[in-house]
């Protein structure tokens, strides 16, 4: 340990000897690491479990309820109809459940000069906020799943429209309809947004405004993403009836099944449901029941973000190229200090002691590269934030991720240091010391 | 102190094999001052490097202080170099951007001495070579003779039993060479065993013993006889 401070001094001394080549080596290393870090951050956020305490209890049921007969159609649609949600909602097994879809509109505060602003909307039911742990800052969720002119605002939307969050009882005009605000969420985000993977695992924020499900059907508010109609009704007219009765598929449905027993019971419930529907002559297609766990949903919908995987690959390759280059530069540095290596050996430093020196170099380089790489990564992420809105969550690194990145920086520094140093330290001792 | 029997050493490169040392026998007792001479390329440095465990050998036996050197671990060899042997090179081999003090302290750093002990030893060694006032100079700010004295101080600081000097005065003018030589002789009088490679017949004569290497073969040089004896 007393040697460590000496090794540290020598490491710094070595840097001062040839600051420019060192800076270049460090730069290359930290650019490689920075690109890798920012990609790793994206990758981490998009592949993480956003609800680790309960994701294993959250399920997405799908039934094959399309009304045209087709014996070879085994897989249900990706979206559900109003009737599907209604049928599935009839079970008492889940401890929470909610149908939902995404929509959009224009909102403004009544009696002000402000013009309408585009907003993102999630039409959903009472249990949504329990299902996905969305905490309330003010107020609470709707008392039941009935239609009501009440909406819940996201923290950001409250600030956007009112400049403050304590806006319970205030009114908001949304596409010409007046709603009362009954709840304001905390500044909550869910990354990845697994409750809606219809449009791929995009990096989008949670919605700004939450509307009651029945109200949306009454007012003809439809999904602005995936919809499918399988009959000849006109869904632009009388949606309150057509939307509810017709074959208009647009919804996701999530249930919370707390125990494996409840999960098994729910599967049974789904099978019974299909059997009784068939008896009533309403389920012409084969039983194609599916019950996806939340963590499998992206895979099940084939919506894993392949682009992200490709980016990750590229950033790893880029890091390797940087490592290779940095290692080459580093080799020159160590070759230049070969004489000193040999001298120290001749004067009685053991290989182990010289390795201690090298590991100190690794540590110093690792720490410096890590700090620089974080800077690069922050810049990269700022750029990504410019290109993809809603990545605010990406800016805060979890301690675990930081630690992991530090580990990668150390490993990279090790790779860049060890090969050159090994080359330098095994040269014949006496050669270097001759005149 | 040093006992070498049947020692052979060859350097092999892809094209040629150089037999640098052939069947060397050499015994050096504690306190001797041995001068090693021979034409360039005859194997003097190779022998010195083997003695200093910087170089391995192909066959034969080398006992240092009764201990066989072959087969020692890197750790043991380093400790041996660090504690028992002091090296002095023709080209001084000081680190140019280290102060005189840091240069002398370098081998002590690998020995686990406390900082107080290191300081005391460096100061003593500086005193010994008469450079106490120059501790914070850089090597480049000293004359060649002074630099070689720093190198000697570095070799001395660890109180070695043996000093191995490879043409220590080869790069010095005669005045400086004489000063260095006097320093070595004084160290020898104080009990240090010294093996010194030299080209200077005068220096060889002043050493207690003189061995010669020609073509990798070692022989005891004939003792210098004044002409008067034959008359
Ligand atoms: N590392 C080496 N590789 C190949 N040949 C070497 C090496 N070191 C020394 N030699 C050869 O061994 C012989 C003895 O060299 P050396 O001991 O340096 O001679 P001296 O010091 O007497 O001038 C020379 O022929 C030299 O070329
Ligand atoms: Mg030589």
UniProtKB/TrEMBL annotation, chain A:
Keyword Lyase: no
Membrane spanning residue stretches: 20-45, 310-331, 367-388, 400-422
Ranges for domain MacB-like periplasmic core: 23-268
Keyword Transmembrane helix: yes
Compartmental location: Cell membrane
Source species, domain of life: Bacteria
Major localization listed first in the record, in broad terms: membrane
Domain ABC3 transporter permease C-terminal: 313-426
InterPro entries per UniProt: ABC3_permease_C (IPR003838), MacB_PCD (IPR025857), Macrolide_Exporter_MacB (IPR050250)
GO annotation, cellular component aspect: plasma membrane
Membrane topology field: Multi-pass membrane protein
GO molecular function: transmembrane transporter activity
Keywords: Cell membrane, Membrane, Transmembrane, Transmembrane helix
Protein name: ABC transporter ATPase/permease
TrEMBL record, chain B:
Domain ABC transporter: 2-231
GO molecular function, one term: transmembrane transporter activity
One Pfam family in the UniProt entry: ABC_tran
Entry's transmembrane regions: none
Highest taxon above the source species: Bacteria
SUPFAM superfamilies in the record: P-loop containing nucleoside triphosphate hydrolases
Keyword entries, A-Z: ATP-binding, Nucleotide-binding, Transport
Cited InterPro entries: AAA+_ATPase, ABC_transporter-like_ATP-bd, ABC_transporter-like_CS, ABC_transpr_LolD-like, MacB-like_ATP-bd, P-loop_NTPase
Keyword Transcription regulation: no
Keyword Protein biosynthesis: no
Listed GO CC annotations: plasma membrane; transmembrane transporter complex
PANTHER family linked: ABC TRANSPORTER ATP-BINDING PROTEIN YTRE (PTHR24220:SF648), IMPORT ATP-BINDING PROTEIN (PTHR24220)
Family: Belongs to the ABC transporter superfamily. Macrolide exporter (TC 3.A.1.122) family.
Listed name of the protein: ABC transporter ATPase
């Amino acid at each position: 340990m007393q040697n460590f401070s000496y090794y540290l001094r020598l490491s710094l001394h070595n840097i001062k000897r040839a600051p420019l080549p060192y800076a270049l080596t460090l730069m290359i290393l930290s650019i490689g690491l920075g690109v890798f870090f920012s990609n790793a951050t994206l990758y981490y956020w998009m592949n993480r479990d956003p609800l680790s305490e309960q994701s294993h209890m959250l399920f997405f049921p799908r039934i094959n309820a399309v009304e045209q007969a087709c014996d070879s159609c085994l897989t249900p649609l990706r979206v559900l109809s109003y009737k599907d949600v209604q049928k599935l909602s009839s079970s008492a097994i889940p401890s929470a459940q909610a149908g939902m879809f995404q929509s959009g509109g224009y909102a403004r505060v009544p009696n002000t000069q402000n013009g309408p602003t585009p907003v993102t909307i999630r039409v959903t039911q009472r249990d949504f906020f329990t299902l996905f742990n969305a905490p309330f800052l003010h107020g609470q969720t709707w008392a039941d799943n009935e239609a009501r002119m009440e909406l819940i605002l996201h923290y950001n939307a409250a600030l956007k429209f009112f400049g403050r969050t304590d806006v319970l009882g205030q009114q908001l005009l949304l596409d010409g309809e007046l709603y009362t605000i009954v709840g304001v969420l905390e500044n909550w985000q869910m990354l990845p947004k697994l409750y809606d993977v219809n449009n791929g695992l995009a990096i989008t924020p949670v919605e700004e405004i939450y509307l009651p499900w029945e109200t949306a059907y009454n007012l003809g508010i439809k999904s602005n993403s995936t919809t499918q109609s399988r009959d000849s009704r006109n869904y632009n007219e009388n949606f309150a009836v057509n939307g509810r009765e017709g074959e208009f598929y647009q919804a996701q449905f999530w249930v919370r099944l707390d125990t494996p027993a409840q999960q098994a019971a729910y599967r049974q419930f789904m099978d019974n449901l299909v059997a009784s529907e068939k008896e009533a002559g309403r389920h012409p297609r084969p039983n194609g029941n599916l019950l996806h766990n939340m963590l499998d949903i992206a895979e099940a919908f084939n919506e894993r973000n392949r682009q992200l995987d490709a980016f990750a690959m590229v950033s790893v390759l880029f890091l390797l190229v940087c490592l290779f280059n940095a290692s080459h530069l580093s080799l020159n540095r160590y070759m230049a200090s070969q004489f000193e290596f040999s001298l120290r050996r001749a004067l009685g430093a053991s290989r182990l002691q010289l390795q201690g020196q090298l590991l100190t170099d690794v540590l110093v380089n690792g720490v410096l590269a890590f700090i620089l790489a974080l800077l690069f990564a922050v810049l990269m992420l700022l750029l990504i934030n410019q290109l993809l809105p809603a990545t605010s969550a990406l800016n805060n690194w979890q301690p675990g991720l930081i630690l992991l990145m530090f580990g990668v920086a150390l490993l990279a520094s090790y790779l860049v240091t060890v090969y050159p140093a090994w080359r330098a330290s095994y040269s014949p001792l006496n050669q270097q010391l001759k005149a | 102190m040093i006992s070498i029997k049947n020692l052979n050493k060859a350097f092999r490169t892809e094209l040629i094999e150089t037999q640098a040392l052939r069947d060397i026998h050499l015994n050096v007792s504690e306190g001797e001052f041995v001068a090693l001479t021979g034409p360039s390329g005859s194997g003097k440095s190779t022998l010195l490097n083997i003695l200093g465990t910087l170089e391995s050998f192909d066959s034969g036996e080398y006992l240092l202080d009764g201990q066989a050197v072959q087969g020692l671990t890197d750790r043991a060899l380093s400790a041996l170099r660090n504690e028992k042997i002091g090296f002095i090179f023709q080209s001084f081999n000081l680190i140019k951007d280290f102060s005189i003090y840091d240069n002398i302290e370098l081998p002590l750093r690998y020995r686990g001495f406390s900082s107080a002990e290191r300081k005391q030893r460096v100061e003593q060694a500086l005193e010994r070579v008469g450079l106490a006032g120059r501790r914070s100079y850089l090597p480049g700010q000293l004359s060649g003779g002074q630099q070689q004295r720093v190198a000697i101080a570095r070799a001395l600081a660890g109180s070695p039993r043996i000093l191995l000097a490879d043409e220590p005065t080869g790069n010095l003018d005669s005045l400086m060479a004489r000063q260095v030589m006097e320093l070595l002789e004084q160290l020898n009088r104080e009990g240090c065993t010294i093996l010194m490679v030299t080209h200077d017949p005068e220096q060889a004569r002043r050493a207690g013993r003189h061995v010669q290497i020609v073509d990798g073969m070692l022989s005891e040089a004939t003792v210098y006889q004044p002409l008067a004896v034959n008359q």
